[in-house]
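Support reply, case 0932

Customer input (verbatim):
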Amino acid sequence: MRYRYSTSKNGKLEKKAVIYTCDEHGINFADVDSDAVGIIKRLKGAGFETYIVGGAVRDLILGKKPKDFDIVSSASPARIKKIFRNSRIIGRRFRLVHVYFGQRIFEVSTFRSMKDGHTSNTFGTIDEDVLRRDFTLNALYYDPEQQIIIDYVGGMDDIKNKRIKPIISITEIFSDDPVRMIRAAKYAAKTGFSLPMNLKMKMSSQSSLLAAISPSRLTEEIFKIIHSEKAADIVDLLDKMGLYAYLQPQAALLMRKNADFKKKYLQGMADLKKLDNRRGHALGCLFNDYLETTAEWKPGAIENYREVYKDARSFVMPMNPPRFELESAVKKFLSVRGITIKKILPKPVSETGDKPKKRRRRKKKKNVNTGG
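Our regenerated output:
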């Protein structure tokens, strides 16, 4: 075991982090994505400190092969973009870079500072970046070239002891960002780790803070849930803690009133891992059981499709999925029941309030011979 030091304000060396070697952390390097390793090598080769961070490191330690590999670096987004032509910068408040390898995306972020608190959107150092992460099990930095883990917050011990421990003060962690409540429940369900009683009590007392979260952020979190192998366990835990009512209020209400609906709803979540993993199909698990008992339709009627779509859209609110994905999920729901919708027609005039525009034909100009 080694240690990482940095200079304090007094000019003295301070022990900042524990460094775990390959023999100590036990990560199987074969489980590390080769493209992620390639990105890190190029950024390090350009002189930038770069690591795999977050859930991927946690899963590797637990002997699981991660689906996604998030990368963090001292390089700025503009510099990352310059190094990787197959990339684009995203985000408004805090800019990130998506690096593309075919259909796969690797998210590369820049170290953030503590200048504006735990939700800071200014660039910083790794020493600052670790302090604004949520829980210790997600705050480990892995260098696949040297095969070492840098641990500033005791995350390795917490993973070994199956604990979910916040880095940020419990008085601030959820008021700073209420979405961390959803993530805490998600981590507990995915790992089987326990949530401390004081953390659960705080989540229960501050659950109403989720009401102010934007539909786009809730949509992002729900998509992460339904594409997890532990989707049913996550939703069940969120429901038991009273948090699911802020993600899917109508579904939470039905689950509370009807035990059979809850059983079917959670089973639909559990069956997702056996089905087509496209978003549009996975999305259906949020409303299929509801439509099965409430929607009425006539085979082949496009008007009926619109009613089913409207019911599904209303049921998943405040979530706001992309229209084409919701359309795909509704068509899938109907096709399983023998109804094929080949083409979605435009809304009739009565729905849009606009008259259809007439297409004007351009007149062909005649060539005039001026004799010049």
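We compared this against your earlier run and they match. Two observations from our side: Strands lie at 2-7, 13-20, 50-53, 70-73, 87-90, 96-101, 104-110, 140-143, 148-151. Residues 348-356, 363-372 have pLDDT under 50 and may be disordered. Please reopen the case if you see a mismatch on your end.
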